[in-house]
Design goal:
The chain is 31% helix and 23% strand. With 674 residues, the protein is an alpha/beta fold. Among the domains are: 105 residues, no CATH class; 65 residues, no CATH class; 96 residues, Immunoglobulin-like; 51 residues. Strands 6, 7, 8, 9, 10, 13, 14, 15, 16 and 17 form a 10-stranded mixed β-sheet that branches. Helix 11 packs parallel to helix 12.
């Protein structure tokens, strides 16, 4: 237990004078916590905490006259707190028992005429994962995030507390996930799609105009209430601010470019209907959690897409093997870079680190003062570079009012990222100078994740093609699948893969619900004939399919272009088999959608033709022709011989001799052959 804790302020310029460069601020982060950096101010109103029990916290306030803060030139000074008390283990002396410190910038009024442009980026992201049936997984985590003290709720409250404009960087998949919770977290549906109001139809399940729940309505879960409340707050919080939407699901962009660029294009094109329903307009934006993008990823993005990167990748820092900053290079990163026609807005890595210890660096005060310090050194050097700051994910969001009110200084002009980008002349940067650490490449999602997502999207499209009255399930499954490519999945690839496989199995079970059977074998009476198949639709919904025959060459199976089956129904269809050979063909009959994609069910049937072989017909025809030709030749010879009065051919047959005699007008018996 501590007693009689006196709290004083100290102020000073450290050991080398006021800090005026970014490198000096970086070095200050490593100054020992007990280093003498300024004088303790004893005048004014120090605070006193009488008793502090173990594990307790106590608030304090210290007021000092402004004339006690001696400054010699523009730059950044040290401001801190010394707490002096005593306990059973520590004597009552003048040595500080508790310390806290941060940066205090001094910017003369002459700089107010040209304030430094700045922008604050607020990311709204969280891991999104779905169960096999399409309901949102990890509901307990969402309940925690959306609770009044949860991170997503506190983030809204943090921005709501101030009037400073910010740029929101939103994963649309997160907004859709919260909306799903607000609707009770139902599984995905293959029920008939609701009528389109544009067609003049009125949905039968539309809510009551009074908003009163029906007597048969199911109880609303706590997470549904929290989700609905969060969406309403989110709509109000972003009103008037710039909103950038990430690729749907916050897709791992470098991995997508490396393994399947089509999925990246799909994620960039995907839009959240919930954002549209909330009346929130947005533009596409890209930023990774680490701020790093490789050259291929940048080249793959549309030039109109707003790209935010860490200034560490613009050839300003040497990075260690673990991706940490090790040494600053001679030049500082540009505020906006131009790389092969793409503009990159560079966010400050330094501000993300907060203020020097001891104690937590990423507090509201620590981040705010580092923000102001970085802005001050840029401004007083005479070459002001606009400053973009991305609020870090891993901090407590404490004291929101103090954070934004502290940014309201006349020498700082906080606007949106787009305003900063458009007002800044981009600095050309050679693509070879971009730094993409090897550790980032190692963390990327592997190719198997993209194969699983592509398979699930394809299966969802096939399911929608088959269902007659549902035109939404394919898009729903596509959105769910894209969340499997999130940056968040880098640390949980096995879990993500299992989730995708379970969803794929759910779709496959439905597609297998259209079954085909046929006879054990088919014998054609000629070159063509019918093949009878039976189709069973075991689903509770009407479907439309086709049947395709697959075999070796020499046989062709054709059938109807479209076969419609009502829910829980059976139909018999006649296919036509045409063959050009007399052998047995093993034919596989496959159920497909109208585009030819297989559903899963199939049946094997051997097909043979009973027709006589063409070779046999050829041999028989040739023999008959030769026979008639021989007869004709002999008749001609006998007739000619008789006309010339030649003796009968003793070697002729009796029939030939008789025929020759008739031809000569004689009727004599043929001579006996000795």
């Amino acid at each position: 237990m501590w007693r009689s804790i006196d709290v004083y302020t100290f102020f000073g310029d450290g050991v080398g004078g006021a800090m005026r460069t970014q490198a000096q601020l970086d070095a200050a982060m490593d100054v020992p916590g007990d280093a003498l950096l300024g004088d303790r101010i004893l005048v004014g109103r120090p605070d006193v905490v009488d008793v502090l029990e173990p594990g307790e916290e106590a608030s304090f306030a210290v007021t000092v006259p402004s004339d006690q803060l001696e400054v010699t030139k523009a730059g950044v000074y040290w401001l801190g707190i010394h707490a002096l008390g005593y306990s059973a283990s520590y004597p009552d002396d003048d040595k500080a028992d508790g310390r806290a410190r941060t940066f205090m910038p001094y910017v003369p009024r002459r700089f107010e005429e040209t304030p430094l442009p700045a922008a604050v980026v607020v990311p709204i992201t969280a891991p999104v994962r779905y169960e096999a049936d399409g309901s949102l997984a990890a509901v307990e985590s969402w309940r925690r995030w959306l609770a009044p003290e949860g991170r997503l709720s506190r983030l809204l409250g943090f921005v709501e507390s101030g009037s400073t404009p910010v740029t929101w960087l939103v994963d649309p998949a997160l907004v859709d996930a919260v909306d799903l919770l607000a609707r009770g977290n139902p599984p995905r549906s293959i029920e008939p799609s609701a009528p389109d109001p544009a067609d003049g139809a009125t949905p039968t399940d539309a809510p009551s105009p009074t908003g009163e729940p029906s007597a048969t309505a199911e109880p609303v879960s706590p997470e549904a209430l929290m989700a609905a409340g969060w969406l309403a707050r989110f709509r109000d919080a972003v009103a008037g601010d710039e909103v950038l939407t990430l690729p749907y699901g916050n897709v791992d962009v470098p991995a997508a470019v490396r393994h399947d660029r089509r999925l990246l294009d799909l994620a960039l094109a995907q839009r959240s209907t919930v954002l549209a329903d909330l009346g929130i307009e947005s533009r596409p934006g890209v930023m990774s959690p680490s701020g790093y993008l490789d050259a291929e990823s940048i080249a793959a993005l549309d030039p109109e897409t707003t790209v935010v990167v860490t200034d560490r990748m613009l050839d300003t820092l040497r990075t260690g093997a673990d991706g940490s900053a090790a040494e600053r290079r001679g030049t500082e990163a540009p505020a906006v870079a131009s790389v092969e026609g793409r503009r990159l807005v560079a966010a400050s890595y330094a501000v993300d680190q907060g203020s020097p210890g001891p104690g937590p660096s990423r507090t509201s005060v620590g981040l705010r003062q580092r923000f102001l310090a970085e802005a001050a050194v840029r401004l007083v050097k005479g070459e002001p570079r606009p400053l973009t700051v991305v609020l870090p994910q891993g901090w407590g969001l404490n004291d929101p009012l103090g954070f934004f009110s502290g940014l309201d200084v006349p020498w700082l002009d906080v606007g949106t990222v787009t305003e900063l980008d458009e007002a800044t002349v981009a600095t050309p940067v050679d693509v070879a100078a971009l730094d993409y650490p090897g550790i980032q490449a190692q963390r990327e999602l592997d190719g198997a994740a993209f194969d699983d997502v592509a398979a699930l999207i394809e299966a969802g499209d096939v399911l929608q093609n088959v269902l007659l009255e549902n035109n939404e399930v394919g898009a729903v499954i596509t959105e769910e699948a894209l969340t499997g490519l999130s940056y968040a999945g880098r640390s949980s690839q096995p879990t993500t893969q299992l989730s995708l496989e379970q969803s794929l199995a759910w779709v496959a079970d439905l597609l297998d619900g259209v079954e085909i059977t046929t006879s054990p074998g088919v014998t054609l009476s000629g070159t063509s004939g019918p093949v009878v198949v039976t189709l069973d639709n075991t689903l509770d919904h009407a479907v439309e399919v086709r049947v395709r025959g697959e075999s070796d060459s020499g046989i062709e199976i054709t059938g109807p272009d479209r076969i419609e089956l009502a829910a829980d129904s059976r139909t018999t269809e006649l296919l036509t088999a045409r063959t050009t050979t007399n052998r047995v063909h093993n034919v596989e009959l496959v159920v497909t959608d109208l585009a030819g994609n297989e559903l899963g069910s199939s049946a094997d049937v051997p097909v043979r033709s009973a027709q006589v072989s063409d070779v046999i017909w050829l041999i028989m025809g040739t023999g008959a022709g030769l026979l008639f030709l021989a007869i004709a030749v002999r008749v001609v010879r006998r007739v000619r011989a008789a006309r010339r009065g030649e003796a009968p051919d003793l070697f002729a047959t009796r029939a030939e001799q008789t025929e020759a005699a008739r031809a000569s007008g004689e009727q004599s018996e043929p001579a006996e052959v000795p």
